[in-house]
Amino acid sequence: xxxxxxxxxxxxxxxxxxxxxxxxxxxxxxxxxxxxxxxxxxxxxxxxxxxxxxxxxxxxxxxxxxxxxxxxxxxxxxxxxxxxxxxxxxxxxxxxxxxxxxxxxxxxxxxxxxxxxxxxxxxxxxxxxxxxxxxxxxxxxxxxxxxxxxxxxxxxxxxxxxxxxxxxxxxxxxxxxxxxxxxxxxxxxxxxxxxxxxxxxxxxxxxxxxxxxxxxxxxxxxxxxxxxxxxxxxxxxxxxx
Amino acid sequence: xxxxxxxxxxxxxxxxxxxxxxxxxxxxxxxxxxxxxxxxxxxxxxxxxxxxxxxxxxxxxxxxxxxxxxxxxxxxxxxxxxxxxxxxx
Lengths: 241, 89
Fold this sequence. Notes:
The complex is a heterodimer of chains A (241) and B (89). Chain A is mainly alpha-helical. In chain A, 65% of the residues lie in helices and 4% in strands. Chain A has one domain (5-41, 51-226).
């Protein structure tokens, strides 16, 4: 019952430490990459779709739809980043019910790395979308006085992203471990179910928040507020590509 | 009671109080947000997807304060600079 899989060292060779976080991250990477490669080896566009191709198409189409709804732009340029974030957080959270699996997202290192990726990606997308000066002018909206608060807000929401995911996944695994020693039969199963629900929701929230931050950075020259507001006359079905 | 014991005692107590009081506000705020979202979905069922998505984003924003309290409690318990300083002596 440890607080982070970083402490579970499998192999150490000088300064290089192979702990559970790294091993299970490699495992998740292998599952995602090998699984996708196996499914997409023989793509077909007719009625002879395999089930796995259908599953991947459902996932990719749903992600494209969500990205398009949030950003109101072409989802193709954001899909690799946001889609990878979502899948990389979803797969270990769902696999955490497999006995012996330590989700790498239960370690603050992994979640901080993911939040740092989002922190770097937001200015990157903003500058390539709007230009350097226009993006920097973003920070002085709505008034010049708000510059330190905007910067602090950027940093704090990155920290919040990391700690939210870490706290949810770590507490899920921890409470199952604690209950196993107290009430061994029924409650750990219920807690595993709750852990599955929160894992899926947290993966979705991480990806959607990343998308909202990127959309706020690339869209701020269109509207004065940074949150996408639902407008009654806008119909996203009409702009479907 | 020397300073080591005193710091340990106050740290444990403060960590518990921090997370206990710090999660009251966000819980109430999230309950209000969810209630409003549910009534909005009841009024406009075909906008349910958009409302749900906005609800999730709002919940994440509201939860930030609870996360900050959680971080402070973790720092007090596991990376307490005063405790480390005294232990090293």
